[in-house]
Amino acid sequence: ALTAFNCVREGVTTPRVAAIAPVSSGRFLFDSFAGQLGLSDRAAEIQRDRYTRRVFPDFDDAWLSFDALRAPMPGNIELLLVHDRDDLQIPASESERLHAAHGEHSRLLLTSGVGHTRVLGADQTLDAVSSFVGGGLAAVDRAGLGDERTVGSFA
């Protein structure tokens, strides 16, 4: 999803983007990995700095390119986010943060009980993405899926 967000910010033309169980930033991935390894905050910072200098030597702020919160997509791009509340790999709060950053041009569908890997094949996900691809946020709203006022929950 971060790559799609970045491509749109860099000029790729599309009316909408769907993201399933996304992260909000590359830093989240790096910090989660450091946490799983049990690195101290200082050790994680050193590793992150070394990685950044080695992989992104020509970037002033390499992490900005992979941060959909600090650099959201343009307001004319519709965004559908689908995430499971029980996702143990990427917390649903990542999609909630993306939804907040993209405002009225996004919808969030929260499922329950399917976790990180099965959310992609869940009927609710397929219904929402099919509606979104065929008719954008208006179709998602008409179907009652992911309305920002009544975030859907499905067992």
What is the string of helix and strand elements? HEHHEHEHH
How would you classify the helix and strand content by structural class? alpha/beta
Shape category: globular
The end-to-end span amounts to 25 Å
Name the assembly state: single chain
Main β-sheet description? 3 strands, parallel
Could you name the ranges where pLDDT drops below 50 across 5 or more consecutive residues?
A: 147-155
Please report the total strand number as a whole number: 3
**How confident is the prediction overall: mean pLDDT?**
90
Tags for this model:
155 residues, alpha/beta, three-stranded parallel β-sheet, 6 helices, globular
Please provide a brief summary of the model.
This protein is of the alpha/beta class and 155 residues long. Helices cover 45% and strands 12% of the residues.
Explain the overall architecture.
The chain is α/β, with parallel strands linked by helices. Helix content is 45%, strand content 12%. The two termini are 25 Å apart. 31% of the residues are buried.
Give the helix/strand layout.
Blueprint: H1 2-9, E1 16-20, H2 26-37, H3 41-55, E2 78-84, H4 93-102, E3 106-111, H5 115-118, H6 123-142
Parallel strand pairs: 1-2, 2-3
